[in-house]
Amino acid sequence: MDGDRRRELAAIARPARAQDSPARRLIAWLQLLFKAFVQRHSWLARWQVAGRPALLLLLAFLVQKNLRRSYLSWHKSRLQRRAAAAVTVQAAFRAMAARRDLLLRRRTRAALYIQAQWRARRALWSYLEMKRASVICQCAWRQSIARRQLGKLRLANVERERLDELCRLHEMVDVLQQAVEDAEVRVIAEREAAVKAIAEAPPVIKETVVWVEDADKVNSWNAEVDRLKGLLGAEMQATIDAKKALAKAELRNEKLARLLGVQEIKNKTLQDSVKRMEEKASDLEAENRMLRQAVASIPSVKSPSSENHRAHDLQATPLNEKTTNGAIKPMIVDRNGDIHDDDNAELPASNDAEAEKQQQELLIKCISEDLGFSTGRPIAAYLIYRCLVHWRSFEEDRTTVFDRIIQKISAAIEVRDIDNGTHNWRFLWT
């Protein structure tokens, strides 16, 4: 009996297992369970005889409806969770893709900017190199042309001097030839006169005298010709010496021209350096003038020994530096902006607290006032820093001056954040 029931249950369960939907499988399994329960308990058969199958069907329908509803709600909630998870994953992946795309765009933009800057620099460098090369070529070409023209001018001058010298020598030769011809004519005339005299006079005496006179004249004319030849040789030697001296002078002039060019370059560099030093000196003088104006705008503390120096120095007493007998050393800010002690001035020890208070008030007043800038640096900040360094306030762990300065600066920043004066303290503390 039990074996038959098991076989029937297995035969009924096979088509239920073959179905695809889990809900249908559950419903079929419940139906089989209900039928097995009915077969197990035979007393329920009497309900079927008495007309109770409708109640059982109603119960089965209600159970199926509740089961289907619960399954559908569970399935729907699972699908919703899966959809939400899928949407979250998609959003995450899309955000990653968007960030990756944005990073790629930024890298591309940066690469394009770097490439553009590099190409611009390279183009500018090539342009400057080409310009420099063209200027060098032009200078070399103009230098060669100038040298060629200078050589031509020198050759023209040498040729002109040579022609002048040749003309002068030709004139001298013509003069000498004319003198020789005149001498020959005179000699011939004298010979004819001597012949006539010999013919007219006694032969022996006159002939001797004529020969003596002719020999003297010939010797004198020969000496004159030799003298003229010597003068011509001396003139030619002087011309050769003048040419050599001219060549040496030209070489010396070239060397002097080179030295002059070098000296001009050195002079130009020295002038540039002098101009730079003058500009630096003017900047330093303007800065010192601004510092003196800033220091002059601050009221100074009077001391008995500093009344004679009011026209030159501005006196201020440090907060932390004291003498051995309790007196406070006054501080002097000169025209150059340097701070030093006045060893000749001494205040009594009873006024230490008042002097410290006055100096603190002066320092706070420097903070509250707008003293402007000098060469890009705030005057008030520079003055306060120099004062604190001179007073050796940085060597101590904590002083009241720093507390008051910090409070004043914070109050000024809170009240006048837009004012230009606050930029001094931002520059100082940043």
Automatic annotation (TrEMBL):
Coiled-coil annotated spans: 267-294
Main location class: cytoplasm
SUPFAM superfamilies named in the record: P-loop containing nucleoside triphosphate hydrolases
GO biological process, one term: intracellular signal transduction
SMART domains per UniProt: IQ
Alphabetic keyword roster: Coiled coil, Cytoplasm
Cellular component aspect of the GO annotation: actin filament; cytoplasm
Keyword Cytoplasm: yes
Protein's cellular compartments: Cytoplasm
Domain of life: Eukaryota
A GO MF term: actin filament binding
InterPro entries reported for this sequence: IQ_motif_EF-hand-BS, Myo9, P-loop_NTPase
Name the UniProt record assigns to this protein: Dilute domain-containing protein
